[in-house]
Amino acid sequence: MKEQKTLTEKLGRLIELAGTAILMNLLFVVSCLPIVTIGQAWCGLVTAIRYNIRGDSWFQGYKDGFKKRFLRGTIVWCVMLVLQVFFFLTLLRDTQNLFLETGALNKAGIVPAVVTGLMYLLFNMLTVSLIMLNVYIPTKVGDWLSNAAGMVFKAPLQLFGCALLYCLPLVMSLYMTDIFFMIGIVFVGFYYALAALVITMLLKDTLVDYLVDARIDGTLIADEGKPTPREDDEEDEEDS
After folding, report:
1. For the chain, percent helix, then strand, then coil, each to nearest 5?
2. Contacts of range 150-156, beta carbons closer than 8 Å, 24 or more positions apart
3. Which among 208, 197, 225 has a CA at the least distance from the CA of 60?
4. Crossing angle (nearest 10°) for helices 110-136 and 156-175
5. 3-state secondary structure at position 10
6. Given CB 3.0 to 4.6 Å as the disulfide criterion, which of 50, 96, 136, 162 pairs with 128?
C-alpha cells in the first residue's frame, strides 16, 4: 500500500511539473509576440525556473524576472538581435553558395559558411551568457559584460550546447520548415521551458562560481531572493 502511494505521489508530481512547464512556455511565447520583448521574456522564464526549483511561485518569478531585469534584458536583445540577424542572413547566403548551379559542392564556399556559422553561434553564446548573468548575478555593467565574455572561455562547451538550444527554433524554421511546422506544438507547448531548465543546469556550477566571486569582490549591486539551490545545500551542510 505504501509503495502504491509513493508511485501515485511521483505520478502526481510529474503531472504537476508537466503542467507548470506548459504554462511557463505559453506565457513565454505570448510575451515574445511583440518581438522586442524576447530578451525580457527569456529573463522572466529563467527566473521562473529558478523560483520553481526552490519551491516558490514560478509566476511571481516570471514577473520579477521580466520587470526587474527589463532594461538590461531589452538592451541585450536589441543589440544581439541586430548582430544575430546580420550573421544569420550572411550564413543563409553562404550556405546557398555552397552548391553550384550544377548541384556540385562549391569547395570555395565551405570556409566562409563555417566561419559565419561559428560567428553566429558565438553571438548566441554571448546572448545566453548575458541573460543568465543578468538573472542570477546582478552586477555593475562593466563587471556584467566582462563576466559574460569570460564565461565563453570558462565554459565553452556548456555555452555551445546552450546556444544550440537557444537558436534551434529559428534555424529549423528557415532550414527545416516542413519539420518545424509539423512539430510546432512542441515549441508552443514546452520546448522553451525545457530549454531554459537545461541551460540552467548546464551553467549552474559556472554561475555559482561567478556568484561567489562577486560576493567576495563586493561587486553585486543587488542580492535579490534566496541563494541558488546548490548554495542552499551547502549552507544546510554547514549548519548540520
Report:
1. 85, 0, 15
2. 151/203, 151/206, 151/210, 152/122, 152/125, 152/126, 154/206, 154/209, 155/203, 155/206, 156/125
3. 225
4. 120
5. helix
6. 162
Q: Which among 45, 84, 79, 46 is positioned nearest to 171, based on CA atoms?
A: 84
Given the C-alpha cell 546572448, which residue does it identify? 127
DSSP string across 104-119:
-B-GGGHHHHHHHHHH
**Which grid cell is 183?**
512539430
Per-residue pLDDT of the chain (240 residues; tens, 9 = 90+): 444 567 777 777 778 888 889 999 999 999 988 888 888 999 999 999 999 988 899 999 999 999 888 888 888 888 887 887 787 777 777 777 777 656 667 677 777 778 887 888 888 899 999 999 999 998 888 899 999 999 999 999 999 999 989 888 877 776 777 777 777 788 888 899 999 999 999 999 999 999 988 888 888 886 444 444 444 444 444 444
DSSP string, 80-145: HHHHHHHHHHHHHHHHHTTB-TTS-B-GGGHHHHHHHHHHHHHHHHHHHHHHHHHHH--B-HHHHH
Cell numbers given for 90? 550572411
How far apart CA 17 and CA 230 sit, in angstroms, is 20
* Predicted model pTM: 0.80
Give φ, ψ of 124 to 5 degrees.
-70, -40
